[in-house]
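TICKET: design request
STATUS: open
ATTACHED STRUCTURE:
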């Protein structure tokens, strides 16, 4: 059975993988989407920091 890394390498080198990589780069360079990602990370960070562990 092929390793996970081998499978990912094959996907990245396939036409579908290259298209997905190109699309991800476009999304990452879009200021609106970048701000959405930052907001989502900040929301999760606030949620996690607000929870107290009880032991």
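STATUS: resolved
RESOLUTION: sequence designed for all positions
ATTACHED SEQUENCE:
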């Amino acid at each position: 059975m092929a390793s996970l890394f081998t499978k990912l390498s094959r996907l990245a080198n396939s036409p579908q993988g290259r298209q997905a990589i190109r699309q991800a780069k476009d999304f990452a360079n879009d200021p609106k989407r970048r701000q959405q990602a930052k907001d989502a990370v900040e929301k999760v960070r606030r949620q996690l920091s607000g929870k107290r562990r009880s032991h």
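CLOSING REMARK: Residues 31-50 form the longest helix (20 residues). Residues 3 and 9 are 10 Å apart (CA to CA).
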